[in-house]
Amino acid sequence: xxxxxSIAAAALALAAAPLSAALPVGASAPEIQTQASxxxxxxxxxxxxxxxxxxxxxxxxxxxFTKGCTIEAHDFAEATDAFHKLGATVVGxxxxxxxxxxxxxxxxxxxxxxxxxxSADVIKAYDVVLPVKPDISNRTSYVIAxxxxxxxxxxxxxxxxxxxxxxxAVKAWRAKHPA
Length: 179
Hints:
It is built from six helices and nine strands. By secondary structure, it is an alpha+beta fold.
C-alpha cells in the first residue's frame, strides 16, 4: 500500500507541476494553417491571418470533453468578450478531429471562440507534446503579438491560471499599444 500511495502522490505532483514549453517569450510563433470550428461550423484557420486583427491567445489543450479541458473552455468562453474588447482573438488547439471540435465548440466553448485541429507537426513546432501521451498536446497557453512574437507562455496541466495569465498579458500589451 505505501508504494501505491507514493505512486499516486507522484502522479498528483506531476499533474500540478508546471510543464515546460520550448517557445520562450520573444520566439517567433510558427505559422498554423488548419481546420477549426466556430459555433459548430468548420472553417479554415491561419495564425498569420488572425494576427492581422491583433494579438492571438493560442491555447493548447489535451482533449475535448475531458474534465480539465471542459473547465478551461468554459473559462475562456466567459472571458472571450473581454479579450475581444482588447482586440485579441482566442483560439483553442488540440489533436481532436474536426467533427469532435464542431461539437466542443458549441457545447463547451459556447460558440464564443474557434477551436482548431492541431496536427502532430504543429504540436511539435510549439513543443507542447504531452510526454505521457505523445499523440496529444499538453496544456499550454500563448499570447502572440501581431508581429508574430510570443509575449506570454504558461504551461500547467491544471486549467486554473491560463485565462488570468493570458488576460494580464493581453492587457499589458494593449497598454503599450493603444488602439
